[in-house]
Design goal:
Radius of gyration: 25 Å
Largest sheet: 4 strands, antiparallel
Number of helices: 5
Mean pLDDT: 81
Oligomer: single chain
Order of helices and strands: EEEHHHEHH
């Protein structure tokens, strides 16, 4: 007589595992040279492709009884997924000089790059990444307001010209100083 543990491995694909950055991460916006906070979210799909590898790698690491569904497995890989997504987005914005305001046009290629970067990690554990989608890359409203203000000032500068813009700004400063009663 001996004791044995039996594990049933579900090989059905799970295509709707959600992910998202919990906190925005900071990036220097290449077009306007300001620091903005970026957040992103999406979903991916996985399935167990190698049961033996999965059981020896994941079940051993999570003590068997803790592995009961795809959500548990996805939590285990959450840090990996978010690190690769943040790194990929930052690389494209900073090194390829894609503006945060224009990045939506690149969601498909960014999703493909992220999938390629996480696939090898999942493969090591006997899990196949079936799809990976970034649904949105965005910045908080207060950062959008800052960018809009910069765009408005830039447009005003281009319309008025250098000398008239400088004169207008100095009047704005004088007006602000005059409205502060008691200031020296």
């Amino acid at each position: 007589p001996f004791t044995a543990e039996v594990y049933f491995v579900n090989k059905v694909a799970k295509l709707d595992i959600k992910w998202g950055t919990t906190d925005p991460f900071q990036i220097t916006e290449p077009r306007y040279q300001i620091i903005v906070k970026v957040r992103s979210f999406g979903q991916f799909g996985i399935k167990v492709s190698d049961s033996r590898n999965f059981v020896t790698q994941i079940v051993g690491a999570l003590h068997g009884d803790q592995v009961s569904d795809y959500q548990t497995v996805s939590k285990y890989f959450r840090g990996l997924v978010l690190t690769k997504v943040k790194d990929t987005i930052a690389d494209i914005i900073v090194n390829q000089k894609v503006s945060v305001l224009d990045i939506t046009a690149s969601l498909d290629s960014i999703s493909t790059t992220c999938r390629e970067r996480i696939t090898s990690e999942f493969d090591r554990f006997g899990i196949e990444v079936l799809n990976f989608f970034i649904e949105s890359i965005n910045i908080p409203d207060e950062d959008i307001a800052r960018v809009k203000k910069i765009l408005e000032e830039r447009a005003e500068f281009e319309i008025l010209g250098d000398e008239r813009y400088t004169r207008k700004r100095s009047f704005d400063v004088l007006e602000t100083a005059a409205s502060n009663e008691g200031a020296g």
